[in-house]
Amino acid sequence: MTQSKSRKSGCGCFSLLLFGIVGIAGGYFYGRNFIGQELTPSRSAMITPASAYATGFISTNPREWEEISQFGTNSAQEILTQNLQELIDENLTEETQTIDVEKDILPWLGGVSVAVLPSSSAGLDSNVALIMGVSNKFKANSFFQKYKNNLQTNPLETKYNGITVYEIDIENSEKIWATFFNNYLVISEQEEVVNQIIDTHKGKTSLANNYPQNLVNNNAVISIYFPEYDRILLKALKDNISEGELDEQVEEQLNKIKTIFMNMSIEDHGLKFTTLVKLSEPLEYQNNRQPVSENLLRKIPENSIFMINGNGINQLWQQLEIERKNIPELNELISETEIAVNQWLNLDLGNDIFSWLDGEFAFAVAGNVEKPLFNNNFYGLLLLESSNKNQGENTLSKLENMAQFLPFASINRTEIEGINITEWNNYQTTITSYAWLDNNNFLLTLGKTFNPNEILDKNSSILNSDNFKITTDSLAKNNYGYIYFDYQKALDFALNIDPNFYEEFTPEMRALSDSIKAFALTSSSIDDTTDKVELNISLIKKKELN
Prior knowledge:
single chain; about 550 residues; alpha+beta; 20-stranded antiparallel sheet; 17 helices; disordered N terminus; transmembrane helix; membrane; DUF3352 domain-containing protein
């Protein structure tokens, strides 16, 4: 067959509704088994050429998507439905104006996959194929027959490698090519793409040969896969920067990232996004990473709005010290920081600050959202574990000596329940207070006077927060720390400060804002060369609004 004319690919016209124009192929289903098969990421990989840059999959199973209907306000549901309908209407062609997606398409559509392939056509960087699963041939045939007569011109039928290919004229003299085989419906704006997929189906190397089955989330409603992320990323970087500007060390690290797999699933808490990164070998900074415990989380207040925890700050500094020798820009930045810290604080950045930060850490912003911002209501909290208390005390002493020359600060020392507390005050306001709880644990507050009875109440830790529990429940427990943001508390606080907070919000932004509880992000390792990053967005359920 003749190749299609080269032109800029218009992926936007790949609306799911476009395949209504391939109705002429309805006869394909006659005399065959009416039982189809759901498409999965693994099944679509079986007919995707191994040269693919990327693939994406979206489930069309109503049972999987209906889970989302339990979340959000009525306004959010109405806006979602309205935007979906507008998207559909914008992509309808003249021949498909009467298509009802829910009645005509979803009953037979068994999943959709998008494959991005390298192009051999001039003027195109890549080609795109739409691969759809046919889960019910009988209903698909009914749909195709219904819209068959809407076509203005009959498609041109040809054979390629024993399989029928349809060349179909659409609006504005554009064309698409389509084919059917083994419960697959394949559509592309380039003829060569359909031919490539047929060749793969007939035996050429497919993406499935190297597909990471252990990374596939069978509950995901959306999946995106970059089979050769290193090649694609490095090419994109080199195409967009001047020759020689990509540092060799950076390029070496990027070369270790082989593949990336991203999933989105709908869970009891709301939405979960998972990114899995497969490496050719461990990255340098991974060698000494250790999962964090819940020791410091037990001391973080339940009314925290924001919290981040982790460990090994000193290891990060040690790695930067190694990398600075090979990266001039990094060395310059660190050197300038070292000079500034020495001049302003009389401290050595490595010895006085990073050397004793060798344990876990946790930082939180907490407070009562129903009370005013001031009067010690909102405060910051920093917890540190250290095996070098002597160095920590030496660093604090240097800072205290410097503070004696600050006209706005006064230092007071008190003792509560055997704990020696140091306070920095500005008139009647507490700037910061800190103390060693024992030989290994240091606690610092910002904007609040240290009170062990109030701050270290184990019965009121963030681990008891309903929002924290539901948002982090499905995240990996053996992780390197959390970043947690209680959006609901932050929103209540914003509205308490400014009742007109929503004034500049669009209806869509307001509906989305009213539907979110909290965010939680964490990272972990599956093995030495596979890292996992998870983001949970917990949503308010409709029954909670009643």
